[in-house]
Specification:
- The structure holds 2 protein chains of 2 kinds.
- Chain A has 11 helices and 10 strands.
- Chain A is of the alpha/beta class.
- Chain A has a single domain, classed as Glycoside hydrolase/deacetylase (TIM Barrel).
- Chain B has a single domain (about 25-40, about 50-290), classed as TIM Barrel, CATH 3.20.20.
- Classes of the chains: A alpha/beta, B alpha/beta.
- At the A-B interface, α2, α3, α4, α5 and α8 of A face α8 of B.
Chain lengths: ~290, ~300
């Protein structure tokens, strides 16, 4: 009996150690001169593509369409008014739905990065590569160069092969960290975003398949205070915060106002660096290789 | 657009704030939908819905409280009414019309028509239109498909045929669309620009998702959040000169602390100058005059192997 339990212990311990070994932390990021923390504003601009992929209802599609017709334009205006350079993670297919909006994103100096082709990562590696390349070409047709960042579950090997330098997905650490694939290979920088700092968690009904009794749709005052506290905690730690919004969610007028208040408050604190994800990634890669 | 069938229903970009214009000196439109349906889920109004204290409250006490609140601030609303509710509330509807409110249709018994056969849906639209016309003395101009608390999603349900059938049936507008926060065109055929004007809707301004949602006994009572959503969105839209809409259910917002929050909010609105409050059909008439047709760019979508069409 004891030996069976011992085997369980060692099996679980080795799983934990293997997973841990795939991560390489940066204990403290030395931000550029005069900067004590970095904040990335990121927008996942998939409009109705995920709703379409999941075969949701016409009204769900229309809810997503708001992001392309209204929300993305308001986010561009908001970031521009604060002279913030944001990162817009964009499925390649958006190039065929909202080219004008993407041109405006690029013209304002924001980064356009990969968010899959049609908001899924195919299991078949050949098709996965095809999707990755199609998205790269679609986004390059707007920006003149292939994206270097992604928010996706794309294979790190393919991402490296295609010239990507960072991913921004999930949160195994407050700070940017290095991540390797299940074979312990293909190290890639991750710029973490936490689900508590994601607008859809608080405003989007039935998000990620959540049932009716699990809804926690709320108001901007509450989210503003929560995000401000998260910012302050990292500000005092000299750390990093990635604010994830969706044009179809945060593009609503009261939420643009809330982001405006949040950014205005952040800017009252000295030494807050608000560049694109690419800038943060290049800095981390250079200073903490 | 660029247009894409099955993905988009309207033009590529909404009107910018300066291009949104309201009659006279008005700077912001304020529209109110009162949902008279008592359906709890996709099956629509059932006998069980009519033998519940919650419904009874909504039909009588709650209804009176909501109407009092509207009257106190001189506000006019559109009452979204399923055919069966028109029969049950016939007298109340006639009073509402005399007082300047609008009665619009909301399905036969506010059932989910997503998978319904076209012929069946056609018949239900015709019968609902006839029932409402008979009771109110005029054809309804608007058709609503508002969500119910028991639905999977918070946007309302329609079939692939609904918009086409509403156009065929002579409806002037559809009452609850989510693709914009101002009235907009819902296009059913990009080639011919066949479309129906659509009023904006968003569930964050709909009381039913914050007040004992998804059903009584859950304790999920967030009247304070609902109130803050109304306030923040109205303030933002007023400043932009756009449109604020809210959806009210007498069984929900007509109770106690909730009706006080409603009145506090309406008092705040009434202190703003230039707020244009009229029933939806007048908003739509104004919109049709200013923006008669949608502007669509041809599709640039391509089909690729290994991708969704």
């Amino acid at each position: 009996m004891t030996s069976v339990l011992e085997q369980e212990l060692s099996a679980l311990t080795s799983v934990a150690r293997r997973y841990d070994a795939r991560h390489r932390r940066i204990p403290r990021v030395a931000w550029p001169d005069g900067m004590r923390m970095a904040v990335n504003f990121t927008a996942d601009f998939d409009a109705m593509l995920l709703r379409r992929l999941l075969n949701e209802t016409p009204m769900q599609l229309a809810k997503g369409e708001f992001g392309g017709r209204v929300g993305i334009w308001r986010l561009i205006a908001l970031f521009d008014s604060h002279d913030i350079k944001a990162t817009i993670f964009t499925p390649g297919r958006i190039r065929e739905l909202y080219p004008e909006a993407l041109r405006a994103v690029h013209a304002s100096g924001h980064e356009i990065a990969d968010h899959m082709w049609e908001h899924r990562v195919p299991r078949d590696m050949q098709l996965e590569l095809d999707h990755l390349q199609k998205t790269g070409a679609a986004l390059a047709s707007i920006t003149g160069r292939k994206p270097v960042g992604t928010r996706s579950d794309h294979s790190l090997s393919l991402l490296r092969q295609e010239g990507f330098i960072y991913t921004s997905h999930d949160c195994a650490d407050h700070l940017p960290y290095y991540l390797r694939d299940t074979d312990g290979e293909n190290e890639m920088l991750n710029l973490p975003f936490h689900y508590a700092i994601d607008d859809a968690m608080f405003y989007s009904f039935a998000w990620l398949g959540s049932g009716n009794a699990a809804q926690r749709i709320t108001d901007t005052d509450r989210v503003l205070e929560m995000w401000w506290e998260a910012f302050l905690q990292q500000y005092h730690a000299g750390g990093y915060l990635n604010v994830c919004v969706h044009p179809f969610v945060s593009g609503r007028a009261q939420r643009i106002d809330m982001l405006d208040r949040l950014i205005t408050r952040m800017k009252t604190m000295p030494g807050v660096w608000m560049p694109t994800c690419e800038s943060v990634a290049r800095h981390c890669l250079a200073v903490h290789p | 657009m660029p247009w894409k069938d099955g993905y988009t229903i309207s033009d590529e970009r909404s009107l910018s704030d300066p291009d949104v214009r309201w009659p006279g000196d008005h700077r912001c439109c304020f529209s109110i939908t009162v949902d008279l349906s008592v359906a709890s889920g996709p099956e629509g109004i059932t006998a069980a819905d009519f033998t519940s204290p919650k419904t009874q409250f909504g039909l009588r006490d709650g209804f009176d409280r909501v109407k009092d609140a509207l009257d106190r601030f001189g506000l006019k609303a559109t009452f979204a009414t399923p055919a069966v509710m028109a029969r049950v509330q016939a007298h109340a509807l006639r009073v509402l019309i005399q007082e300047g409110h609008e009665i619009a249709a909301e399905g036969f018994r506010h059932e989910d028509v997503s998978a319904m056969a076209r012929e069946d849906e056609t018949e239900r639209i015709a019968l609902t239109t006839a029932v409402l016309s008979d009771i109110t003395g005029r054809r309804p101009d608007g058709w609503f498909s508002l969500p119910r608390q028991g639905d999977q999603f918070a946007g309302g349900t329609i079939s692939p045929h609904t918009m086409d059938l509403l156009i065929d049936a002579g409806y002037e507008y559809f009452g609850n669309g989510l693709a914009d926060d101002i009235p907009h065109h819902w296009v059913t055929d990009a080639a011919t620009r066949r479309s129906i004007l659509t009023m904006p809707y968003y569930y964050h301004y709909d009381d039913q998702f914050f007040l004992l949602f998804p059903s009584k006994g859950t304790g999920l009572e967030h009247a304070d959040s609902l109130f803050r959503n109304w306030r923040a969105e109205f303030a933002a839209q007023y400043r932009r000169g756009r449109h604020f809409h809210m959806t009210l259910h007498p069984y929900a917002v007509g109770f106690g602390h909730r009706v006080r929050l409603l009145e506090t909010f309406l008092a705040e609105v009434s202190h703003h100058t230039g707020v244009w409050n009229v029933p939806a059909r007048e908003v739509i008439a104004h919109w049709r005059h200013l923006n008669p047709t949608p502007t669509l760019e041809p599709s640039i979508w391509r089909d690729y192997p290994g991708s969704l069409s």
